[in-house]
């Protein structure tokens, strides 16, 4: 873990994705969730040698397919046509989720509605009356990988913190999130609590004031 | 016994009767046995329980079965999509039952049925509303939920190629649920783009052994 740092400006989405990509260990097997996390793949370097997993049944997923490379039978979990890289493999759904549940993936990056200070994740269902629930692989992804990282905006439109003491949205997985990347700060969650690794466009003191949980300033 | 080779999709699904539980392969459109679903639509069977990752997209396949209220229950992981309007309408009208299952648990429940497993403890879903009412257990300090197998009367799936003994190979991510669904149904009906003579598929490359396949039908084109 790098030293505590701060920047004057909040992070853009690309900057967040770039930081996540830089933190992924070389040679890792990684699943990038739908939405913001997908953007991380644009910042992974060839030297990192990261292998991407898509839970519909492929390792070695390449970039989004364009033009003649579009093949309806080669899609990612977001149902977008993608490409295969040399050394790719295909497998059925039970194997794909065994890979995940069995702890064989190193990192999974997901979006979130809320994360609690204990690392509980809410990202599958708003719980709103009348909302049709759909879970997909969210619960498997949350608890399956060796490390689960979240990318999200730190505050709701109403300005409330999405890093909370206890979830108010329905749970996706308990105690599973170990890092959170937001535009305002990057957090690490472990037994010692929630540590702020960096702040962006906000000071540690201002952050501590706005969040409803106790924060540890990174060394 | 070697599988029956049907001459049409209609003939292939002709045994599917009212009240059947049907596993339907596919993730999105990849691997979706569209022609078999259309034939199921035409054969008139109703009161179906359908197991699929989704609950139909746009105005095709499973979505049409739901539109015509031929499906009483859907067991799936991701019903709500931008183009799942037929499911959404049936669900909001209270005219279809939904059993929502996390995707990996769905796959493992199907696999368990095919493998003769009576149930399994999975960490996925522990502590969530999808585990409510289910038996849980803490094993070595970690919470697990008891999930039960999903077996079915029929599976309708799509593979790329078969031999006359029912051995199957698939293509890219269209494989998805096919291999496990083939194992979990009393009768597995498979559409392929080509049926070759036994011996023409490399045995090392067979993904679904023919023992799991009951009916084959050739449908032109793989995409």
From TrEMBL, chain A:
It holds the Pfam family CoA_trans. GO terms for molecular function: succinyl-CoA:3-oxo-acid CoA-transferase activity. Gene3D superfamilies: Glutaconate Coenzyme A-transferase. Keywords: Transferase. Its EC number is 2.8.3.5. The keyword Nucleotide-binding does not apply. InterPro entries: 3-oxoacid_CoA-transf_B, CoA_trans_fam_I, NagB/RpiA_transferase-like. It is an enzyme of class 2 (transferase). Belongs to the 3-oxoacid CoA-transferase subunit B family. This is 3-oxoacid CoA-transferase subunit beta. The lineage of its organism: Bacteria, Bacillati, Actinomycetota, Actinomycetes, Micrococcales.
TrEMBL record, chain B:
This is 3-oxoacid CoA-transferase subunit A. Keywords: Transferase. GO terms for molecular function: CoA-transferase activity. Pfam families: CoA_trans. NCBIfam families: pcaI_scoA_fam. It comes from Paeniglutamicibacter gangotriensis Lz1y. It comes from the Bacteria. InterPro entries: 3-oxoacid_CoA-transf_A, CoA_trans_fam_I, CoA_transf_BS, NagB/RpiA_transferase-like. Its EC number is 2.8.3.-. Belongs to the 3-oxoacid CoA-transferase subunit A family.
């Amino acid at each position: 873990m790098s030293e505590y740092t701060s920047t004057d400006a909040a992070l853009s989405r690309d900057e967040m994705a770039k930081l996540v990509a830089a933190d992924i260990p070389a040679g890792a097997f990684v699943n990038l969730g739908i939405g913001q996390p997908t953007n991380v793949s644009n910042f992974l370097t060839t030297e990192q040698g990261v292998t991407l997993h898509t839970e519909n049944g492929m390792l070695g997923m390449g970039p989004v397919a364009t033009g003649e490379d579009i093949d309806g039978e080669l899609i990612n979990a977001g149902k977008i046509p993608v490409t295969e890289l040399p050394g790719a493999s295909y497998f059925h759904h039970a194997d794909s989720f065994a890979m995940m549940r069995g702890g064989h993936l190193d990192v999974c990056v997901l979006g979130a509605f809320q994360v609690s200070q204990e690392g509980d994740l809410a990202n599958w269902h708003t719980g709103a009356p009348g909302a049709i629930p759909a879970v997909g692989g969210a619960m498997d992804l949350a608890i399956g990988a060796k490390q689960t990282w979240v990318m999200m905006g730190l505050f709701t439109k109403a300005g409330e913190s999405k890093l909370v003491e206890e979830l108010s949205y329905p749970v996706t997985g308990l105690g599973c999130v170990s890092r959170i990347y937001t535009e305002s700060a990057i957090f690490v969650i472990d037994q010692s609590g929630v540590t702020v690794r960096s702040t962006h466009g906000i000071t540690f003191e201002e952050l501590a004031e706005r969040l409803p949980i106790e924060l540890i300033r990174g060394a | 016994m070697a599988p029956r080779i049907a001459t049409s999709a209609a003939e292939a699904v002709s045994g599917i009767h009212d009240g059947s539980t049907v596993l339907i392969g596919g993730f999105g459109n990849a691997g979706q046995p569209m022609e078999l679903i259309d034939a199921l639509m035409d054969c008139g069977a109703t009161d179906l329980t359908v197991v699929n990752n989704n609950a139909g997209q746009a105005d095709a396949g499973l979505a049409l079965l739901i539109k015509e209220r031929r499906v009483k229950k859907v067991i799936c992981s991701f019903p709500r999509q931008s183009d799942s309007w037929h499911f959404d309408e049936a669900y909001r009208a209270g005219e279809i039952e939904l059993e929502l299952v996390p995707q990996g648990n769905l796959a493992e429940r199907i696999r368990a049925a095919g493998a003769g497993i009576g149930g399994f403890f999975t960490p996925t879903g522990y502590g969530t509303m999808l585990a409510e009412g289910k038996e849980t257990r803490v094993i070595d300090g970690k919470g697990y939920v008891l999930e039960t197998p999903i077996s079915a009367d029929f599976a309708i799936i799509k593979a790329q190629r078969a031999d006359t003994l029912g051995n199957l190979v698939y293509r890219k991510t269209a494989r998805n649920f096919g291999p496990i669904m083939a194992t979990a149904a009393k009768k597995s009906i498979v559409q392929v783009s080509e049926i070759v003579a036994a011996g023409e598929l490399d045995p090392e490359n067979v993904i679904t052994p023919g023992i799991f396949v009951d009916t084959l039908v050739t449908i032109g084109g793989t995409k």
